[in-house]
Write a structure and sequence with these properties.
The protein has 318 residues and is of the alpha/beta class. It is built from 8 helices and 15 strands. α3 packs across α4.
Length: 318
């Protein structure tokens, strides 16, 4: 049985988004789950990820999905059942979420927030899991700490601000363009700064943790803001050479005791369960989205690649 799927053709240097209408429907093996995808979120930087070009069985992008459990592999022993409405983050190596049907692992899927549409839920997994991992696993953020979030109006940034405020109660400095400042204050930012302001980094000091979502040149400026023994965490794309273990940041010569980390988010169904509860309770707000039908997939990707766009691009399959 064939299905529609977004395809990436061309090369890594010059990728092209197309729509393929005759892709074989996958079959779940082992403890895998087959989801009938209702909506899939777009992470535009994925086109630069090596996994898309080297590891995917088919050139189908997409890691954030929301839909309904269609069937279960013969060895599945988890709590999900056929017909359950779920959201999932598919691992970087497998992807292939932007299709009418997608395979997810048992440890990648959780019931979606009941109060959210599939389109809203499909925008969440990578942003909320990235924010959660940065705050709780790596930064180990506590209430008496000060955090700087760059790209605070982006999907990951919005989740960082909300989780740091709602769960930790930390002091949050948010860096974003001025039109987003009121929203970020409402979400919990203590202070907001415009990255277009010259020498913005000179107005900040004593930061315990920087969580950067945009990369250089903003990342390079954040070193000036941290305590002498502070911590800089980045998920910005494209990564610097040191972020893949090649050499060290040149800034260490001036800030030798600052810790630094680049990480790639790990799928975790248990964290999706916790964040679904936060969303359903109203403590955390959903991300703003821009929805496109599957037949407008090319336009969806063009929108998703825009910096400073209003809303995360989502493709609806149902």
């Amino acid at each position: 049985m064939d299905m529609k799927a977004v395809y990436v053709t061309g090369t890594k240097a010059a990728p092209k988004i197309t729509l393929n209408t005759s892709v074989p429907q996958p079959v779940p093996k082992g403890d895998e789950i087959l989801i009938k995808v209702h909506a899939a979120g777009i992470t535009a930087d994925e086109l630069t990820w090596p996994e898309l070009w080297e590891d995917h069985l088919l050139p189908i992008p997409g890691h954030d999905v929301s839909g309904v459990v269609h069937s279960l592999g013969p060895d599945y022993k988890g709590s999900l059942s056929v017909g359950d409405a779920v959201m999932a983050m598919i691992s970087a190596k497998r992807g292939m979420g932007q299709a009418e049907y997608a395979i997810v692992s048992a440890d990648e899927a959780a019931l979606k927030p009941a109060t959210l549409s599939h389109a809203q839920a499909s925008a969440l997994p990578i942003p909320v899991l990235t924010a959660w991992e940065a705050i709780f696993q790596h930064a180990k953020l506590t209430k008496n700490m000060k955090i700087l979030v760059t790209g605070a109006s982006g999907a990951v940034g919005i989740m960082l601000v909300q989780l740091a405020h709602q769960i930790v109660g930390a002091e949050i400095i948010a860096l974003a363009s001025s039109r987003h400042h009121d929203t970020l204050k409402e979400l919990g930012a203590s202070q907001v700064l415009d990255y277009n302001t010259p020498d913005w980094e000179d107005s900040i000091s004593g930061v315990d943790v920087v969580i950067d979502t945009v990369g250089n040149p903003v990342l390079a400026k954040t070193w000036k803001t941290v305590k002498s023994d502070g911590f800089i965490i980045t998920v910005g794309d494209p990564p610097s050479a040191w972020e893949y273990g090649k050499g060290k940041p040149e800034e260490l010569s001036s800030y030798p005791d600052v810790k630094w980390l680049f990480f790639i988010v790990t799928p975790r169904a248990d964290i999706l369960v916790k964040t679904a509860e936060l969303l359903d309770s109203g403590r955390v707000k959903p991300l703003p989205i821009e929805v496109f039908t599957v037949d407008k997939a090319v336009e969806a990707w063009a929108f998703g690649a825009q910096r400073g766009r209003q809303g995360k691009a989502v493709i609806e399959f149902v």
